[in-house]
Design a protein that fits this description.
29% strand; tt1808, chain A; alpha+beta; single chain; 6 helices; six-stranded mixed beta sheet; three-stranded mixed beta sheet
């Protein structure tokens, strides 16, 4: 990863002010700013990545809004703690009233989804998940493959441990934190897999 800012360290407030003046999205970890694409070692998302994110967003939008929740895609930041990192998840859902009035970033998501590719998978599964687990409100972390029909959902159980539930072709994906389910194929509708 290559740090972008000419300043060796930024406070969260400085990052937010600086990010507003940038054309590209930058993520913030431990006081250092990284181009989102630099973090992943790629120059942009694939069509499959984009289509899967939009399919998930489309499937969730109406049911979530009727529950008084918000669903956002790609361009909305989430902050993992007061002094913590800022990321741009592919899809996030918050049902917390504090996020309903948010204007710059979300702080209390119950579900975060990332679309995986070969260059992002390790980072999303390990480093990013470690940051997301700092969110007390988070109940589900969804990882969707862009190479094959496969969804992994990490859920926080009653013992405050994260459990993995994998889904594959022909199965119904269950998002328990928002009481929603859909066929896995809906997430891959009209998607040309890598």
């Amino acid at each position: 990863m290559i740090a972008i800012s000419d300043k060796p360290y930024m406070t969260p407030e400085e990052y937010l002010e600086w990010q507003e003046t940038q054309e590209l999205r930058y993520e913030y970890v431990d006081g250092v700013v990284y181009a989102k694409d630099e973090v992943y070692g790629m120059t942009g998302g694939t069509l499959a990545h984009n289509d899967i994110a939009l399919n998930l967003y489309s499937a969730l939008r109406s049911p979530i809004r009727t529950k008084g929740c918000r669903v956002n895609v790609a361009d909305v930041k989430v902050q993992t703690a007061e002094t913590g990192a800022f990321f741009y998840p592919d899809v996030l859902i918050s049902c917390d009233s504090r996020d309903k009035i948010a204007t710059k970033f979300v702080r209390f998501p119950c579900l975060i989804a990332e679309i995986l590719s070969p260059s992002t998978e390790a980072y999303d599964r390990v480093a990013k998940f470690a940051q997301y687990r700092r969110l007390e409100s988070l109940r589900e972390y969804v990882l969707i493959s862009s190479e094959k029909v496969s969804v992994d959902i990490f859920r926080l159980n009653g013992s405050h441990k994260w459990e993995l539930t994998p889904y594959s072709a022909g199965e119904i994906v269950q998002f328990t934190s928002i009481n929603f389910e859909c066929p896995i194929e809906l997430l891959y509708e009209a998607v040309e897999l890598l």
